[in-house]
Amino acid sequence: MLGSTPGWPAVLADGPVVLRPYKRSDGRTWSEVRIANQKWLAPWESAPPGPWAEMNSARAFGYVYQDMKRAARRGESMPFAVCLQENGTERLVGHLNLGNIVRRAFSSAYAGYWVDSRVAGRGVIPTALALAVDHAFGAGGLHRIEVNIRPENKPSRRVVEKLGFREEAYHQRYMHIDGGWRDHLGYALTSEEVAAEGGLMARWRRVRA
Ligand SMILES: CC(C)(COP(=O)(O)OP(=O)(O)OC[C@H]1O[C@@H](n2cnc3c(N)ncnc32)[C@H](O)[C@@H]1OP(=O)(O)O)[C@@H](O)C(=O)NCCC(=O)NCCS
């Protein structure tokens, strides 16, 4: 049903990392970051057909924004802009989506993410993912979060390994990325696995301390 998504919209934060719904006015920054990061992002994303600069222009964001908004309204996803709040200003530096949400007996979602290479290595995405997973298991009413990663993507595998996701599958020719059908490793986490520790954010705080 439209407009009745548990846990959406939401704003989540830990230190300088803020997750919030996208705004129409994010187009210019989103486009600048995406275009500056073409080489960094293209090997890992299922991109729409067309030149990168065009698919990631401020104009294209209008369509991306509408798509995200529609899917979120339908309860199919929770698309967060990942921002850094530093020196009194907030800037968009990445993206984290809980997508393919299926409820009832499955109550599961897939997480996808990226961050601007200029802020990589600061733990922004592990923090964002931990916040989003706790939110999904709490207000979002979900039970399981899955992340699928190309075996070659060591930085992304480190994100889920540091958070203690279980490696549980090897999907052959799983997704069409960067010109071919790419194998993926499947990682997952269910709410029971973090409940006793007070959630994934509590676990992540202990890991990074
Ligand atoms: C994967 C990704 C989201 C990680 O985000 P992040 O906020 O940098 O995560 P972390 O800070 O925890 O760093 C993760 C790992 O990246 C590596 N790393 C750190 N700084 C880096 C840099 N400047 N450049 C490349 N890799 C770096 C390290 O191996 C680090 O692991 P470590 O903590 O054991 O040292 C980010 O690398 C990215 O956006 N990559 C391109 C898009 C992508 O792969 N998306 C995921 C698809 S499944």
Automatic annotation (TrEMBL):
Alphabetized UniProt keyword annotations: Acyltransferase, Transferase
SUPFAM superfamilies linked to this entry: Acyl-CoA N-acyltransferases (Nat)
One Pfam family hit: Acetyltransf_3
Domain N-acetyltransferase: 31-192
InterPro entries associated with the record: Acyl_CoA_acyltransferase, GNAT_dom, N-acetyltransferase
Domain of life according to the entry: Bacteria
Similarity comment: family membership: Belongs to the acetyltransferase family. RimJ subfamily.
Name under which the protein is recorded: Ribosomal-protein-alanine N-acetyltransferase
UniProt source species: Paractinoplanes deccanensis
